[in-house]
Amino acid sequence: MQILNPSRWYLHPVFIFTCSIFALATFLVVTISWYMEITSALEVIILKFHIDPKLIFPSKTGMTILVLSALIAVVLIGILLAFIYYQKTVNLFRLQHNFIYNFTHELKTPVTSLRIYLETFIKHELKSNEVKKYSENMLEDVNRLTENINSILDLARIESQNFGSEITRDSLIKLVENFCKKNSSLFRDLDIEIDNQTNIDMVYPVNLFLFEMLLMNIISNAIKYNESHAPKLVIRFKNFIQKVTIEFIDNGIGVDKKEAKKIFRKFYQSGRYQANDISGSGLGLYLVSSISAIHGWRASAASNGRGKGATFKITIPKASIANVREKNLWKRLTKNVSLS
């Protein structure tokens, strides 16, 4: 985005908006004030000279002032809403710009690395141990490319509401356990503990593809944003009167309190990641939040500060309390997909 010349600060939209609001508000106040003063003065004259009030105060005068005041109020509200929309648009543009820059870098870096390794294979005769080492590095680059491409594809699939997988009604505890076992090789550097503190089955309708995407993003974050020598994640299930929760408690680098809500925004990248030279697309937690919303759940995050880990919580309302909501949820989840 082009930055305005400091010498032309008076052209900045914020300054123009402030002046417009101030001018309209001043006009409204002055108009009402003058009207009240003139009315008071005329009332004195009426009483002094015994003049018929209808000759001086037509019946429509008060209504006219009221209508004008209402119109000015509408104009003020309209300008305010336009300004809020403008600010959101500018913020989204900035986030998209940062995302495109970072994502391009994320694609370019592994591609450049792969090219160097391939050129090395062609130009030089390497020992078997060197070939193995370089091949492992190339595989890491390929995985990095795949992860970034999948993030974009997942985002497109969710925003188009074309989920493309089966809907199942199953125990969330069982699904989490099966997912962790199935992907144990990916999470081999992370100690995962499943702590079930409930006495219920937690059976809910879920889109299995989306639910596993949610788990993958949260668990991957516990590995990626962790400086501990022994990364650990506790997946805790809790039961309350009107809800159940799934807590993902890690011992990673934590989340600043002021960023606890912002990290779920699209393209948002926390300063904590940049400070640790950890790159990302800014989509992982946005996907977690979106998938939660699709199921009628709510995602949140909390942390005691830097280096003290983070807790990502999925809050799920009990189906017995909102049967109608669950029926609507089922209809939404089964859109363009088949039932298992």
What does this entry show, briefly?
The chain is α+β, with helices and mostly antiparallel strands and 340 residues long. It has 9 helices and 7 strands. Helix content is 56%, strand content 14%.
Alpha carbon gyration radius: 30 Å
Helix content range: 55-70%
**SSE-based structural type:** alpha+beta
**Oligomer description:** single chain
Mean pLDDT across every amino acid position: 76
- Termini separation (Å)? 48 Å
Q: Give me the CATH architecture of the largest domain, please.
A: 2-Layer Sandwich
Strand order of the largest sheet: 2-4-5-7-6
The CATH superfamily label of the largest domain reads Histidine kinase-like ATPase, C-terminal domain
Largest sheet: 5 strands, mixed
Count of strand segments:
7
| H and E string | HHHHEHEEHEEHHEEH
Annotated CATH topology of the largest domain: Heat Shock Protein 90
Please tally the helical runs, counting DSSP H or I stretches of 4 or more residues.
9
Apparent shape: elongated
User: Which residues sit in consecutive blocks of at least 5 with pLDDT less than 50?
Assistant: 1-5, 272-277, 336-340
Strand content: 5-15%
Top CATH class of the largest domain: Alpha Beta
> How many domains, as an integer?
3
